[in-house]
Design goal:
Its cofactor is [4Fe-4S] cluster. This is B12-binding domain-containing radical SAM protein. Keywords: Iron, Iron-sulfur, Metal-binding, Methyltransferase, S-adenosyl-L-methionine, Transferase. The chain is of the alpha/beta class. The protein folds into two domains: about 160 residues, Cobalamin-binding domain (Rossmann fold), CATH 3.40.50; about 270 residues, Alpha-Beta Horseshoe (pyruvate-formate lyase- activating enzyme), CATH 3.80.30.20. The protein is built from 18 helices and 17 strands. The strands form four sheets. A seven-stranded mixed beta sheet has the order 2-1-3-4-5-6-7, with helices on both faces. α9 links the parallel β11 and β12. α2 packs across α7 and α8 runs parallel beside α9. The protein is globular and about 65 Å long. It starts with a strand and ends in a 9-residue tail after the last helix.
């Protein structure tokens, strides 16, 4: 079948406030869709991948008319669902015979509710797409029994919805084909936000799936607290492929917890050191999974930055989030990471259930104490499928449309704060952290290339807006 995989068109204003978009706008390769595309290609189907980050709906329509898809699949997170719905409806009027499906966090979190919002949708994928999408497309092509394929919600001919139930997860990640990077229109267009990378070209990789923890704001495709790992040799082989084929100079690992297996990371680092690859890499980790030997080994192997989800400087609020970490563990991990000459990225969250404005100020003080190289201050997002969303009345209330369900717009408001207070805390935090003369001097002194200079310029613009235009995080335009 001719399969079109699509990220819906979006604009920076869909995600960020205008005054802050320049310093936060990120274009990452759509790794999830690339995995599905690779699996479909392996199954013998013709696949086209379109990333709406770079195209408006008119362009997408013209491309679809040229391709004449029989199967149309979109990926969307919840803030992008409205855009996905619009493109489904537009394409349904042009290709009434095509089967239209959606997947990703929206389908998993909202499920049958999506079918109430648009008649253009035939299928919603609730399993791992690279496992179940090829099975569904194969069945559609041979007019087989689609209801026997787990991991789907199906709109039947009479309009009745059929949930085919959960599907077993992919246990051996090494057996999956590499993401179909060859289907990207322009590999070079993917440039992340300043300060989140060092070299181009850059690509994303996933070395594991799953997480041991169950933070209340995060949703998981299954209820099991475990991680499925790729072998170190599998990672090395893919990295070699990326260097040879795409001249990649940096890898961004998007695992929930890259360091979940200490021995695996050590083995991976040893292989990287032996290979002497001309690239650097960046990963996410939990503060309770690292120590000095591991961090020094990661540095030797080319790691340049580690992101730790700090979230709060108040132990009560960490406990509410079910982070299962302590302030002392955070201090220790940040200190050890700096000692290993690695950069540290520490995101924080405001608007935690039960959090007060004064506790938000304490988190700002904690961020200043940690003095990470990079920091971000988010609002808590009520992602469907998370404990926060499913039990929202226990914690607070949701304001705004799906488009606001992101880390910027404060769509969740706890009973102990107002939406305005959350946004005030974000503005104050950015000003206090990034306007420090010591921080500015350090960043200028450590600038080494044009990407560092771009970071300084865009950061200066955002800081100017925060200093001289209060309310930057409350409205666009």
């Amino acid at each position: 079948m001719r399969c079109l995989l699509l990220m819906p068109s979006w604009q920076p204003s869909d995600v960020f406030f205008d005054s802050f978009a320049d310093s936060q706008l990120t274009y990452w390769q759509p790794t999830g869709l690339m995995y599905v595309a690779a699996a479909l290609k392996q199954a013998g189907h013709t696949v086209r991948l379109i990333d709406g980050a770079f195209h408006d709906s008119d362009w997408i329509e013209l491309a679809c008319r040229e391709f004449q898809p029989q199967f149309i699949g979109t990926y969307s997170n919840v803030p992008m669902w409205e855009n996905a719905k619009l493109i489904h409806e537009r394409l349904a009027s042009i290709f009434p015979e095509a089967i239209q499906a959606t997947g990703g966090p929206t389908a998993i979190g909202l499920g049958e509710k999506l079918f109430e919002e648009t008649e253009a949708l035939h299928l919603a994928c609730t399993g791992e797409g690279d496992k179940v999408v090829p099975l569904m497309v194969d069945a559609l092509e041979r007019q087989g029994d689609v209801e026997s394929i787990p991991g789907w919600i199906i709109r039947e001919a009479d309009g009745i919805l059929k949930n085919t139930g959960p599907t077993p997860l992919v246990e051996s990640l090494d057996t999956l084909p590499y993401p179909a990077r060859d289907l990207l229109e322009d590999f070079q267009r993917y440039i992340p936000a300043p300060s989140t990378f060092q070299y181009l070209p850059i690509t994303t990789m996933i070395s594991s799936r799953g997480c041991f923890n169950r933070c209340i704001y995060c949703f998981h495709i299954n209820a099991e607290r475990r991680i499925r790992y790729r072998s170190p040799q599998s990672l090395i082989t893919e990295i070699e492929h990326c260097i040879k084929t795409y001249k990649v100079r940096e890898i961004r690992f998007f695992d929930d917890n890259f360091c979940g297996s200490y021995e695996r990371v050590m083995e991976f680092c040893e292989l990287m050191i032996d290979k002497k690859f001309p690239l650097v890499w960046y990963c996410n980790a939990r503060v309770d999974d690292v120590d000095s030997p591991l961090l020094y080994k990661m540095k030797q192997a080319g790691c340049w930055c580690v992101l730790y989800g700090i979230e709060s400087g108040v132990q009560k609020n960490l406990d509410t989030l079910q982070k299962n970490i302590t302030l002392q563990q955070i201090r220790r991990a940040v200190r050890l990471t700096k000692e290993a000459d690695l950069k540290v990225y520490t995101p924080f969250i405001f608007g935690i259930p039960g959090e007060t404005y004064e506790e938000g100020l304490e988190s700002i003080r904690f961020a200043l104490e940690l003095d990470a190289h990079y920091v971000n201050f988010h609002s808590l997002a009520p992602f469907p499928g998370s404990k926060l969303y499913e039990n929202v009345t226990d914690f607070g209330h949701i304001v705004g449309p799906y488009r606001d369900y992101n880390f910027e717009k404060a769509a969740f408001v706890p009973y102990t704060m107002t939406r305005e207070q959350i946004q005030d805390l974000r503005e104050l935090a950015f000003r206090k952290f990034y306007a420090r003369p010591r921080y500015i001097i350090r960043r200028i002194a450590h600038s080494r290339n044009r990407h560092d200079l771009r970071t300084l310029v865009t950061g200066a613009k955002s800081l100017y807006n925060l200093l001289f235009h209060p309310g930057s995080f409350r409205s666009n335009g």
